[in-house]
Amino acid sequence: MSRRLIWNLLAALLLASFMPPLLELTTFDSIVPFLPLLLTPLLLSHVQRRWFLSGSLLALIVSFYFILTPGEAPWRLLGEITDDVSRVINGELPGRPAFALSIGLISFLIGYLGRRTFPNRGFVVGLTVGVIGFIAYCDTWTDYSGDQFILYPILLALLLLYATEINERPTASYVRPISALLIIGVTIVAALQSPVITATWQNSWYDWTSRFEGEGTSTNTIQKVGYGSNDEQLGGPFQMDDREVFQVESEGNRYWRVETKDIYTGKGWVLSESNPEIDGRGFFSHFGDDVETREESATFELARELPFVPYNGDNVRLTAADQRQNLLINPENQKISYLDDAARQQNYQIQYAYPLFTEKLLQTDEPVKLSEMEQDRYLQLPRTLPDRVRDLAAEIVADEETPWERAKAIENYFEQENFEYNTEDVAVPAEDQDYVDQFLFETKLGYCDNFSTSATVLLRAAGLPARWVKGFTGGESDVIGSAVTSYTVRNKNAHSWVEVYIEGPGWVPLEPTVSFDGTGQYTINQETDNETEQSNPQRDTETDTETATPNRPQENLLDDAQATTANQAEKRSIPVWPIIGTLLGLVFLYLFRKPIIRTAAILFFRSQIKRPEGFKRMYRFLLRRLDKQGFHYKDGRTLAELAHEVDGYYETYAMRPLTDAYERMIYGGETLSLEKKREYFENMIRRVEG
Fold it and tell me: Which end of the chain has fewer CB atoms surrounding its CB within 10 Å, N or C?
């Protein structure tokens, strides 16, 4: 009895191991309310059926009480579950009641299966593969990271296999416990000491499938969404990448900038020069002296180490483990990075100055006071730029007076002229074709690279210093407090935009990409006297940024290739309908297991019965099915006595001739005809599995 209790406990704990990743991907906070319905069926799998059923039902009710209506009347549970199941039937997504009911059904079916098959290594292997496979799936294709937790179900599976071996073959021996300890010890040492591989199967899958995407030349292949640094060749379609980059708790939805580029080549962007320097803060003088700023902070939790620090605003300070960190500051492209790879942080906090512009300050018409070198950099245009691009810029700003009005006219041009946001049919310019010219006059569709690059070129053509900016939009949000919000930023949230220089305000962000409103770039104080603030929509758009589509083709963050995308929000969840379909399939198989077994056995042995070995296999299969029904042929009875009892119970004459034929085949003599064997076998299997 004690061995069975240990086996039950190990099996129950192994089953419960599939819940932590599932809970992390849903809205449930703790596994504790699920423990009664997860553990009880397997813990009671050895008791009488009535106690097993009543105990499992009681555990289900207890868990439902704490999961669905904590502190409320238990009789409300049935109503909650019924209402939610009805909503699922009507095509809606399941809620907490249907989710809890599904988990309870899975637990009960596995407990019942363990009850019927104990001790059975096949059950243990199936349970192990299912649990570890589910954790591996979540680790690979979702935000869940199982690199630490996966060791626990592996150890539980090894212990459960050892307990199963002891129950199947209870003979005392020192070989089995020593072997088990060696295997478990080697597993623990290998898990703790093996080097961590940063690549994932999901990365490999994207890399492998990308070879089959797109046709034609290599420059037109479908790329991936993400952040990198190579922007020399822009254009072409891309594929979605939902992998998480970081989570950030901030005081609002913010754009997180990484770097700028200043030289437009006609095909893409490069940086004119790079002279990084060591500093304790990133002070880039983005804004003028008259710009009011607000001190904000943001806490970052990176999914993997990044070679750069995403930030917002000005005067950036980074703190990790309560220690101020020295950083590598590049004043040429405003990029903040680490002194070396060993200094990279995955959890840190930044403080920065967030700008609060005023309409009066933005409307200034003072001449630009940038140095001659800075004006050369931020007004640079290639000699090969077609004249019609310059003419278009002059036409757009012809009726505007101040630099800010001219900049806003260029920003709004794309929406007013019905340019289309598109990620699939995006062209790559020919060798003798300018990237901006193609977008403005031929295709008029694209994603953020097309819009931001074209806006930067038009601003420069209109005489306004501008630079191309890369980083991330805000990601999906989950409010956790009145002032602080948690956001999940993914590869698909990489993005590019533009900053224009206006004497007085300084560098002001613009969002030219249609379907993006630029919320989170800065704030405009509409009424400076009473300090009323308004989140700055760059322009009125019909599409909310929370539902905007992804933005640009890139390669993986750590591959240091190209970069950017959009601000499409998705709920943090796993696919629901495949789980429901699987559960319904398991229920169907369980309810109709007997006719399925009967039909499969008849079809399989119709061909096998022709051969002596096939007939023996058929007869032994029939004995095993009878053993499941309580007719145990190893209880000191002969096969003939068993056959007589079976025929008497089922009121038939089929088992005795089959047994006689089986014994004659073994010991020699006449046997039944092929037709009679088939007839008797099918008669028996229909009754046994009826």
Answer: N
Residue 49 lies in a domain: yes
Higher pLDDT, 190 or 99: 99
Q: Are residues 466 and 545 in the same domain?
A: yes
| C-beta of residue 494 within 8 angstroms of C-beta of residue 229 | no
Q: Which long-range contacts (CB under 8 A, 24 or more apart) does 371-374 make?
A: 374/465
Q: Are residues 391 and 509 in the same domain?
A: yes
Residue range 567-592: average pLDDT? 62
**282 close to 353: Cβ distance less than 8 angstroms:** no
Residue 545 lies in a domain: yes
C-alpha span between 565 and 552 (Å, rounded): 4
CA dist., res. 332 & res. 271, Å (int): 8
What mean pLDDT is predicted for residues 202-229?
Answer: 47
pLDDT, tens only, 300-347: 988 877 888 899 888 888 888 777 877 888 888 888 887 776 677 778
> Do 440 and 388 have their domain in common?
yes
Residue 637 domain-assigned?
yes
Q: What is the pLDDT of residue 269?
A: 93
User: Minimal CA–CA distance to 237: which of 253, 251, 219?
Assistant: 219
Instruction: Domain count for the chain, please give it.
Output: 3
Q: Is the same domain home to 291 and 415? A: yes
Each residue of 229-260: b (16+ CB within 10 Å) or e? Answer: bebeebbbbbbbbbbbbbbbbbebbbbbbbbb
End-to-end Cα, the chain, rounded Å: 33
Q: Across the chain, what does the average pLDDT equal?
A: 77
Q: Which residue has the higher pLDDT, 521 or 378?
A: 378
Across the range 69-90, mean pLDDT stands at 67
Locate all alpha helices (DSSP H) within 651-673, ordered by sequence.
Answer: 655-667
Instruction: Compute the distance between CA of residue 549 and CA of residue 547 in angstroms, rounded to an integer.
Output: 6
Mapping DSSP onto H, E and C, the string for 494-525 reads EEEEEEEEECCCEEEEECCCCCCCCCCCCEEE
**What does the angle CA 580 – CA 584 – CA 590 come to, to the nearest 5 degrees?**
145
